[in-house]
Specification:
Number of strands of chain B: 5
Number of helices of chain B: 3
Largest sheet of chain A: 6 strands, antiparallel
Radius of gyration of chain B: 17 Å
CATH architecture of chain A: Roll
Helix content of chain A: 10-25%
CATH topology of chain A: Thiol Ester Dehydrase, Chain A
Distance between the termini of chain B: 20 Å
Number of strands of chain A: 6
Strand content of chain A: 25-35%
CATH architecture of the domain at 5-21 and 56-144 in chain B: Roll
Distance between the termini of chain A: 13 Å
Shape of chain B: elongated
CATH superfamily of chain A: Hotdog Thioesterase
Largest sheet of chain B: 5 strands, antiparallel
Strand order of the largest sheet of chain B: 1-3-4-5-2
Strand content of chain B: 25-35%
CATH superfamily of the domain at 5-21 and 56-144 in chain B: Hotdog Thioesterase
Oligomer: heterodimer
Structural class of chain A: alpha+beta
Structural class of chain B: alpha+beta
Number of helices of chain A: 4
CATH topology of the domain at 5-21 and 56-144 in chain B: Thiol Ester Dehydrase, Chain A
Order of helices and strands of chain A: HEHHHEEEEE
């Protein structure tokens, strides 16, 4: 058995309420530029402060899909196999605001936590994981849920 | 003006296939800071039972959004696209996307609602591989803000 498969979480080992290791992800302007290029989403609200302010935002904001990807990492890292995710959904409740800051300072952070909410199917070994994502003390995702098949 | 309800249920023809490339997956995984070996190392992916490197779950959006974008840009629908924010996103997977997939997207307008003057539109995009098999489905909810203070502080995809 390889390390990758050995690391997988077993259905039998989790209970409702089992917590996933929480993570904090830093975000700065460079992160967003890189994500814009990789995702092909070049909306200027994610890199142009003048434009973002003009359309009524407090500052440049992170792509919602970037935040969703960060929260997803908590699930895929825990499950071991990213291919074990069967469903994943979120509501974008507040933007992650990413100001331009001097080098060495933290522009923004997204803190993600999760726990097993329901053991869905003993045969299929599926669970529903409920996630929370917070940035600057605001909930940035709502109804963030993933269905995962465990080992 | 509220959107035309007759668009509910309307389907759009499948897009030209999008070919999922190993290097695009690697680039995307790096951009989200994720060093999971299943995204970069074919051997690690195979150890998990996948024939090639797989894509992170949210990679689906890169494929589905272009198709959804064409739907919301349909001038007959009359959506004011400059006011559109991304309010919800949901994916379901038959299997993970992987390098070598050639995926075409069939989009359907699933619902149109009016909430406090905002137009709320849900588009379903089904990703099919070359054999015609369903690989993943994306549900994208977009809100066209009325401009009032109650506008959802959503994500603002354009």
């Amino acid at each position: 058995m390889t390390q990758e498969t050995a690391r997988r979480v077993a259905y039998a080992d989790v209970e409702v309420g089992t917590e996933l290791p929480s993570r904090t992800f830093p975000v700065d302007r460079a992160t967003l530029v890189r994500y814009a290029g990789a995702s092909l989403d070049f909306n200027p609200i994610h890199w142009n402060e003048r434009f973002a302010v003009e359309v009524g935002l407090p500052n440049v904001i992170a792509h919602g899909m970037f935040t969703m990807a960060q929260a997803g990492r908590v699930v895929t890292d825990w499950a071991g196999d990213p291919g074990a995710v069967l469903e994943y959904g979120v509501r974008f409740t507040k933007p992650v605001v990413v100001p331009d800051v001097p080098e060495g300072e933290i522009a923004a952070e997204i803190t993600v936590g999760g726990k097993v909410a329901v053991k869905l199917d003993d045969e299929q070994r599926t669970v529903r994981v409920d996630l929370t994502a917070v940035s600057a003390e605001q909930k940035v995702l709502g109804m963030a849920r993933a269905v995962v098949r465990l080992a | 003006m509220p959107l035309d309800q007759s668009f509910v249920g309307r389907s759009y023809p499948p897009t030209e296939p999008y070919e999922v490339g190993r290097e695009k997956i690697r680039e995307f995984a790096q951009a989200i800071g994720d060093d999971n070996p299943a995204y970069a190392d074919p051997e690690a992916a195979r150890a998990l039972g996948h024939p090639d490197v797989i894509a992170p779950p949210t990679f689906v959006f890169l494929v589905s959004y272009r198709a959804a974008f064409e739907v919301i840009s349909d001038p007959k629908l009359g959506l004011d696209y400059s006011r559109v924010v991304h309010s919800e996103q949901k994916f379901s997977y038959v299997r993970p996307l992987r390098a070598g997939d050639r995926l075409s997207v069939s989009s359907t307008i699933e619902s149109i609602k009016s909430l406090m003057g905002n137009d709320v539109l849900t588009v379903r995009g089904e990703l099919h591989d070359e054999t015609g098999a369903l690989v993943a489905t994306a549900h994208t909810k977009l809100v066209a803000r009325s401009g009032g203070d109650d506008a959802p502080a959503g994500e603002g995809e354009r």
